[in-house]
């Protein structure tokens, strides 16, 4: 399997080929924009839940399947082979194809005339988006050294805030003025400028920024990759922690616009603006603060990244639960501001750990594993389970409209479970970093 390797100077910038705009921070900016439109095209549908539900006369369970499960099943299933493909092909070109595909199907979502047409288009969005993230992460790992990846990935994670804000504020306002169909078509067209900028990025050589400065030329297969992942016990715990934290954070935020509308009487636009500001403004401020923190801590023992992710996941679970139990809009909004902006802060340290605990020839696939588990939790399990629980509670309480708030409060308890996995990863972290070549 190791019959041929190519080397690069240890710790050097990734050797490049072809033309384009130079500079690894330009590459980071473009990859962040790609991530932002990925999240925006995904998040906008959650903002439009109520008008879609009304037009097609859907239950909460059906909405959960349409907006979450349909995307997740194909996003995550396609993600594994596409993640493996990212370890074999030109990653920049793969991202370009992914953007084109998911944007086209986002537009088709807006043109759907019934539930089944919307479902099929949503599946297409999932398949397209599955091809964008693994190669993006892999490219960034070849532009930044292991000690720099936590900063790079924290900057990259700002794309979640930007995309969520666009999906929340933009989707809500466009829907109120032009309807939910037009909002989806406009979002699809918004990908074109980013697609153009993507072609200024050069494809780096794999493993060029790792201490060993080498990369496997003969590619590993699924079995080799899975075997290595299973042998990295800290990596398994980080993957599990990231998955559960995504459920307890992103899964709740997915339903927040609907919660604000039903429980507190906000319109689609008002709820979208509220959640968009929490994600965009609040999330960006939290992310920027995290980046400065990463700059100060990046050279320290990597164990601090696990401590950071664990404490953050645990602490924000408190306002996550309380926000859905209080009765006043003001109190709920304040508590949501203490929860929603911090949901994505742990993404940077988590992604950096995953990149550093993986071999260069397996990074695309390992990211795809995280996407599989985390997005199943966020896009499939959370919308469907919370929707099912809400429907079930609606038959058991005096005011059925309030069922969603209780379902969300219960789901917030899972943050405790996610925090435990990050702490459990610490024990094997030094050994596993050495095995991956990132020590």
From TrEMBL:
Alphabetically ordered keywords of this record: Membrane, Transmembrane, Transmembrane helix, Transport
UniProt GO molecular function: transmembrane transporter activity
Membrane among keywords: yes
Residue ranges of every copy of the Major facilitator superfamily (MFS) profile domain listed in the record: 27-427
Sequence intervals crossing the membrane: 25-44, 56-75, 95-116, 150-174, 180-201, 235-255, 275-296, 308-326, 332-353, 365-386, 406-426
CC annotations in GO: membrane
Pfam family, one: MFS_1
Subcellular location: Membrane
InterPro entries recorded: MFS, MFS_dom, MFS_spinster-like, MFS_trans_sf
Membrane-topology descriptor: Multi-pass membrane protein
Name this polypeptide is given: MFS family permease
Lineage: Bacteria, Pseudomonadati, Pseudomonadota, Alphaproteobacteria, Sphingomonadales
């Amino acid at each position: 399997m190791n019959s041929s390797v190519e080397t690069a100077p240890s710790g050097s910038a990734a050797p490049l080929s072809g033309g384009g705009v130079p500079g690894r921070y330009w590459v980071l900016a473009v990859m962040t924009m790609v991530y932002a439109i990925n999240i925006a095209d995904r998040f906008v549908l959650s903002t439009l839940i109520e008008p879609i539900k009304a037009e097609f006369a859907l239950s909460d369970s059906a909405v959960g399947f349409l907006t979450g499960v349909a995307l997740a099943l194909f996003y995550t299933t396609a993600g594994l082979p596409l993640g493996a493909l990212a370890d074999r092909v030109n990653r920049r070109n793969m991202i370009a194809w992914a953007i084109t595909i998911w944007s086209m199907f986002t537009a088709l979502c807006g043109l759907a005339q019934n539930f089944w047409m919307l479902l099929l288009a949503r599946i297409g969005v999932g398949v397209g988006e599955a091809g964008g993230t693994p190669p993006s992460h892999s490219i960034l790992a070849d532009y930044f050294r292991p000690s720099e990846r936590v900063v790079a990935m924290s900057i990259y994670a700002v794309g979640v805030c930007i995309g969520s804000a666009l999906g929340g504020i933009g989707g809500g306002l466009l829907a109120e003025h032009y309807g939910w169909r037009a909002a989806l078509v406009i979002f699809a067209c918004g990908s074109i400028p980013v697609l153009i900028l993507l072609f200024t990025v050069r494809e780096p050589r794999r493993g060029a920024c790792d201490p060993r400065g080498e990369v496997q030329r003969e590619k590993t297969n699924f079995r080799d990759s899975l075997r290595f992942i299973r042998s990295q016990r800290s990596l398994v715990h980080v993957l599990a922690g990231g998955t559960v934290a995504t459920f307890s954070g992103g899964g709740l935020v997915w339903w927040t616009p609907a919660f604000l509308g039903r429980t507190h009487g906000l319109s689609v636009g008002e709820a979208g603006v509220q959640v968009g500001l929490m994600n965009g403004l609040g999330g960006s401020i939290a992310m920027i603060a995290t980046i400065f923190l990463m700059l100060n801590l990046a050279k320290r023992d990597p164990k601090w990244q696990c401590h950071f992710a664990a404490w953050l996941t645990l602490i924000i679970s408190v306002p996550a639960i309380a926000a859905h139990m209080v009765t006043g809009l003001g109190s709920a909004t304040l508590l949501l501001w203490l929860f929603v902006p911090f949901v994505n802060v742990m993404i940077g340290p988590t992604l950096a750990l995953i990149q550093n605990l993986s071999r260069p020839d397996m990074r695309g696939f390992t990211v795809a594993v995280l996407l599989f588990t985390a997005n199943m939790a966020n896009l499939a399990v959370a919308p469907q389970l919370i929707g099912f629980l809400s429907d079930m509670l609606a038959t058991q309480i005096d005011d059925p409209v309030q069922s969603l708030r209780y379902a969300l409060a219960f789901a917030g308890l899972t943050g405790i479970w996610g925090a435990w996995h990050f702490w459990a990863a610490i024990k094997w972290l030094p050994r596993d970093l050495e095995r991956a070549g990132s020590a």
